[in-house]
Amino acid sequence: MKKLAIVIAIVGTGCGIVKVQGLPGSHTTSAASGTANEPAPSADSGANSSASAQPVQAPGERITLDPGFSPNPHRASFVGKTELPLDRSFGVDTKMCDGYVASTAAMVIDAPRGFAHLKISAEGSDILFIKMPGGKYFCQEVNTIPSRPVVDANDWPAGSYEVYVGSSSNGRDIRYSLTIEDGESPVTLPWLAMERPSVSLSGAPRSIFMASHHIDEQAALARHPDHGPRCGDSPYYPESPDLEIKVEKRSTFTLGVRAGATGSMALMGPMTPDGRDIPERCLASWDEKLTLEPGTYYARLGMRKEDRPTVVHYFVRPVEESGAASTLAKEVPEDLAIWERVLLYHMPFLSMKAIRESDELRRELFMTAPKSLFVTVKSDLDENVAKADVTVSSYSGGEKFLDTTPFAFPREGELLLHIDGRGTVLAADGSLFQVRMSDLGPVTSASVPSTARNPQLYFQHALLMAGDDDAGDLQARKKRYEQLEACQKKVWKASSGKLDRLYDYPNLNRDKIARVESDIRGKAYTTCGEAKLAKQDEALWASLEKRRSARRAHSLQEISKRVSVLFGH
């Protein structure tokens, strides 16, 4: 005698009840609130469960299914109205399944060979009622949000199954989708056959892999919250992942992503043989260190519903390497929206610190950035709406500048590179500014400054930005400070005996120790010529800024030539 097994799915809170009546070996199974006997929707079912992705059909569809049907699962979406009471129309025990269904079956399934294992779910309805051959039936009722009654059973007999959906309320309009899945056959994942960038790993990668995934308008609109895990700010995921990662043996690497949209990165895998219960997890950052066992994995970017990025850049690199600072992604579309024209989106290894500390890198960025990454300012800017950004590092270096010339700001139509998505822009002369995002626009007429502006640097920053032509002066300064240190040690050594006696009783001699140390510092200052060194540093400061201005002027000439060719001016 065949036995009918039933699995009940409870989503959220509420009570789910399934009754099977009149079948050989059948029994009634119920689940109390909070029970979850069916696993949560796996990546395979979640990635294809969007009712909105299916065309809406009229109820009454009749289909014939045999074991191994394809695609598996079969899906269809409907609209209907609850009209028939289950108890009077079908003799259903209201204690087990109380409510109303549509007058026409949503679907009639002809199964001439029956099924060893079949799973039917109705997303968007409260009641799933299946009329079996010989007047037998399944019935499940759920009162959860979202509602998704599921019948998951073994040993389905040959014959026709009439599938009805409904609600606890009469006369209610419902929009729902049916999913019929053969539990003995692998599920069909349409996105597996789609083309996407792929990387193979066998241990830690030795080089950097970079790939770009384009997102057209249709693909962006098809993103759905059920296509991925619940992470981030309600991200919407694409049904088809962006990147394939084939791991041949255990590998440790960094997986990163850059895109002109906020969101979260999710990792699927390893893939399972039947396509069910594929693990999927949120990644904590957009530069994630991963250790993966052998298998095939997929990465995809979730973002807010309103975001429409044109391209997503992925990279796989060794954990200990960051790559060339200005490495450009392989593909940067020409028709980028203004909010996507951001260097850090398309140069994954670029850092703000590297840009601040290298004039040569600033020149290189202007000489190599593609045309689509440039922006301009819509009008003349000044200190009321922008800020000159002269900080090279976190060290302030002092409270004054040697050059007190007022800062000069970008003019209308001036060509800029937007660095970070927060209004930090780089000008052709190497100047950095903080501007309002609303002041940036696409390039209509490109211009660059005639001279290098804003030479002002704190002294310590001027030392950091020194060039090869400053090497002689810097070496001379090093020798001066080595001599200063030797002189200071000599002065302190001459008074060490007196200090040592006072240090024997530090609490009693605290005031004397302070006076003696102050006298020694004063003597060292006079004897060792610290005042002269300060003047020499100020002269060096002026020389560093003068030579840096000359280097920036030369770079500006090269950049001006490139801009003329690039924009035809």
Overview of the molecule:
The protein is 22% helix and 27% strand. The chain contains 11 helices and 30 strands. Strands 2, 3, 5, 7, 8, 9, 11, 12 and 14 form a 9-stranded mixed beta sheet that branches. A 6-stranded mixed beta sheet has the order 1-13-10-15-6-4, with no helix packed on it. Strand 28 and strand 29 form a beta hairpin. Helix 6 packs parallel to helix 11 (530-567) and helix 8 (471-494) crosses helix 10. The N and C termini lie far apart (87 Å).
Helix content: 10-25%
Q: Catalogue the unreliable spans.
A: 1-53
- Gross morphology: elongated
How many DSSP E strands?
Answer: 30
Distance between the termini: 87 Å
Largest sheet: 9 strands, mixed
What proportion strand? 25-35%
Mean pLDDT: 84
Q: What kind of oligomer do you see?
A: single chain
SS summary, helix count: 11
Class of secondary structure makeup: alpha+beta
* Rg: 35 Å
Provide the descriptors you would attach to this structure in a database record.
disordered N terminus, elongated, 30 strands, six-stranded mixed beta sheet, nine-stranded mixed beta sheet, alpha+beta, 569 residues, 27% strand
Layout of helices and strands:
Layout: E1 6-7, E2 16-21, E3 29-31, H1 43-46, E4 56-57, E5 61-64, E6 74-81, E7 84-85, H2 86-90, E8 100-101, E9 107-111, E10 115-123, E11 127-131, E12 137-141, E13 150-156, E14 159-167, E15 173-182, E16 198-202, E17 209-214, H3 217-221, E18 243-249, E19 251-259, E20 263-268, E21 280-282, E22 287-292, E23 295-303, E24 311-317, H4 343-346, H5 352-356, H6 359-368, E25 374-377, E26 387-388, E27 415-418, E28 424-427, E29 432-434, E30 440-441, H7 459-464, H8 471-494, H9 496-503, H10 510-528, H11 530-567
Parallel strand pairs: 4-6, 5-9, 16-18
Antiparallel strand pairs: 1-13, 2-3, 2-12, 6-15, 7-8, 8-14, 9-14, 10-13, 10-15, 11-12, 11-14, 17-24, 18-23, 19-22, 19-24, 20-21, 20-23, 25-27, 25-30, 26-29, 27-28, 28-29
Helix pairs in contact: 6-11, 8-10, 8-11
